[in-house]
Write a structure and sequence with these properties.
Helix content: 25-40%
Keywords: Metal-binding, Oxidoreductase, Zinc
Region (Disordered): 1-20
CATH architecture of the largest domain: Alpha-Beta Complex
Number of helices: 13
Structural class: alpha/beta
Family: Belongs to the zinc-containing alcohol dehydrogenase family.
Low-confidence stretches: none
Order of helices and strands: EEEHEEHEHEHHEHEHEHEHEHEHEHHE
Cofactor: Zn(2+)
Distance between the termini: 14 Å
Oligomer: single chain
CATH class of the largest domain: Alpha Beta
Protein name: Alcohol dehydrogenase catalytic domain-containing protein
Number of domains: 2
Length: 346
């Protein structure tokens, strides 16, 4: 088969790789039909995730067709069209029993495209298939489903739920990349009073408006003063960090009101300063998190029922064999206008 193989920081290739096989009774073999590229893949290529070793097949977001299952798999069977979660879950360890699948201690968690070969390939082995694959209803398309593998549950769980967004809240989202835009959609499920988005790139500010943000600001637009003016001088009830940079994290800490919540979603590759000398007295709750994807069934049901709109996130489409070009386009959002890309089997 052909696969996107990591060759070390800054190096990737679409090349021949050994076909995966069902190795454990809980495995499934998947033919990849639709796959996408994540910002985390760019972090890996930037050298921010040293656990990923050269030779690893990247990718952790895909829709595919089950070709074969191990003897212990009962929830899917050959021929099923399924969503492959970015998180694998053994279902037995302490964390899985608490639905904290991202912290699985028995070979699960975020392993695809990280510690195990991933799904940016023609075929993929999916461990713990019963809890890691989700059969898809006919009314949900591959493109609608593939964004439920990671960015929608990430924005929902690590953003809206960790931030305890409630009706009437003012929510500030710093960053309008794919995660930030997905956060607009999932935050809106909780009826906030207003959503304020802070983004440096003009095309993404326009996208934030289209996705439903009420106020969209550039970072140099007196952001703190604008948010305080909207909130009687208090600041935002909930602030979501959706970039993963020290400057954006520190901006989030400035924007949250006393008694507010700061939920960090972004993947950080370098240290950020936590100004406890300013925050300790403000009763601010601060959360981090790796997505667990326990919400996929809920989100999938809402998409199928027309209650959650995932349209607009995928802006560019390619054949799977064109994945090298797709990476170039995805890595240059300022020039290409790309949010998410979809790659489809020919």
């Amino acid at each position: 088969m052909r696969a996107l193989v990591y060759g070390g920081p800054g190096r990737r290739s679409w090349t021949e790789a050994p076909d995966p096989t069902v190795g454990d009774p809980t495995d499934a073999l998947l033919r990849i039909d639709t796959v996408t590229i994540c910002g985390t893949d760019l972090h890996i290529l930037g050298g921010d995730v040293p656990e990923v070793r050269p030779g690893r097949i990247l990718g952790h977001e895909a829709v595919g067709t089950v070709l074969e299952v191990g003897s212990a798999v009962t929830s899917v069977r050959p021929g099923d069209r399924v969503l492959a979660s970015c998180i694998s879950a053994c279902g037995r360890c302490r964390y899985c029993r608490e639905a904290r699948y991202g912290q699985c201690r028995s070979g699960g968690g975020w392993v695809l495209g990280h510690l195990l070969d991933g799904v940016q390939a023609e075929l993929a082995r999916i461990p713990f298939a019963d809890l890691s694959l989700y059969p898809l209803p006919d009314e949900v398309t591959n493109e609608q489903a593939v964004v439920l593998a990671d960015i929608m549950p990430t924005s929902y769980e690590v953003g809206a739920l960790n931030g305890h967004v409630a009706p009437g809240d003012t929510v500030a989202i710093v960053g309008a990349g794919p995660i930030g835009l997905a956060a607009i959609r999932t935050v809106r499920l909780f009826s906030p009073l207003r959503i304020v988005v802070v983004e440096s790139a003009a095309p993404r500010r326009r996208a934030a408006e289209e996705f439903g943000a009420d106020v969209v600001l550039a970072p140099d637009n007196g952001v703190r003063d604008r948010i305080e003016a909207l909130t009687d001088g208090l600041g935002a009830d909930v602030v979501l960090e959706a970039v993963g940079r020290p400057a954006t994290f520190e901006l989030c800490a400035e924007l949250v009101r006393p008694g507010g919540r700061l939920a960090n979603i972004g993947v950080h590759g370098e240290p950020a300063t936590l100004h406890l000398e300013q925050l300790w007295i403000k009763d601010v709750a601060f959360t981090t998190g790796l997505v667990d994807t326990y919400s996929i069934p809920t989100l999938l049901s809402m998409v199928a029922a027309g209650r959650l709109d995932t349209s607009g996130l995928i802006t560019h489409r390619f054949a799977l064999d064109d994945i090298m070009t797709a990476y170039d386009v995805f890595a240059d959002p300022a020039g290409s206008g790309a949010l998410k890309v979809a790659l489809n089997r020919a």
